[in-house]
Amino acid sequence: MSAQAPSAVILVRAKRFVPNPATAADNAFQREVPAGESPETVAARALGEMDALAQALRDVGVRVHVFEDEDHTRPDSVFPNNWLSTHAGGMVAVYPMYASNRRHERRADVLEMLKSQYRVQTIVDYSGLEPDGIFLEGTGAMVLDHVSRVAYTARSHRADTHVLERFCTDFGYEPMAFEAVDAQGVPVYHTNVIACIGTDVALIALDMIPDLQRREAVRERLSVNGRRVVELSEAQIREFAGNAVELCGRTPEGRRRYVMAMSARARRSLLPDQVAAIEESCEIVAVDIPTIELAGGSVRCMIAGIHLDRRPVDTEPELTEAVRAINEDHPVTADGRYVDADGRTPEPAL
């Protein structure tokens, strides 16, 4: 498994998706639903986009864990990377969220799945900081270099530097915080909309870091181990070109393959030389998700990567009779997921 690019991911199939009114004030990327479109239409279209992303990742050999969510009070649950991150050595972090209606996106069943199928040693829960008005929204607020152990963070009220320091101490990262703003001086709400770090390539809008000295420090730190830095424009950031993530898949023959997952909109914004630079180290997987992007996030926001060692299958707990009966009644897909009576493939019971 690559230190930077996880081979397994968590997605949430949010059946009641809608852009979150509680996050519109500070998310300059968020847009209103087009006039005349019903919530049911928007939700159905978003559901199709989520399924398309899941299938595109499976097609390149990434292990995909999909969790269903029918709760209409969790409009942003499609973005699990804000409340959860996983780390080598069996470490898991749970984060404090800024918007109060996002805090119950945290799910015990997701954590239980991780504990049952992967080697989890420690779960560090920072969510108790929410009553104190202290927030750090996971790998939205931080873009992590798992190789050089650096946490790049654009300062905002969604990324408190005090809890950033705590996270870095607990998980062994070096904090690298900076100011990042758009052309109107509006702070960037999440670091992962302006930066993506892969194993051998990084995409970042350095011009959105106004402090020239800090800008050069970020550039130097990103490239210190030979990583190629691809600079993005603010216009490309508006198209979500920075909201990408490197993953490690497998070819049909079982060989490792690195992919850069992004939206089709982001891919269209890239220049030929930028595409060539990315494709020197990984292939681009682009999926069209225009409805979900109305919420101000794109493909990276939808993916919680799993940087944990998988448990051997023969050491998993014995199934109960009830679960065994369910598994016998429903066929199993090629990637080990269970098909229910409606043809959907939820996670197996825990």
Automatic annotation (TrEMBL):
Domain of life per record: Bacteria
Cross-referenced Gene3D superfamilies: L-arginine/glycine Amidinotransferase, Chain A
Signal sequence residues: none
InterPro entries for the chain: Amdntrnsf_FN0238 (IPR014541)
Region of interest: Disordered: 331-350
Coiled coil residues, start to end: none
SUPFAM superfamilies referenced in this protein's UniProt entry, alphabetically: Pentein (SSF55909)
NCBIfam families named among the record's database cross-references: citrull_CtlX (NF046062)
Protein name as annotated: Amidinotransferase
Organism: Nocardioides perillae
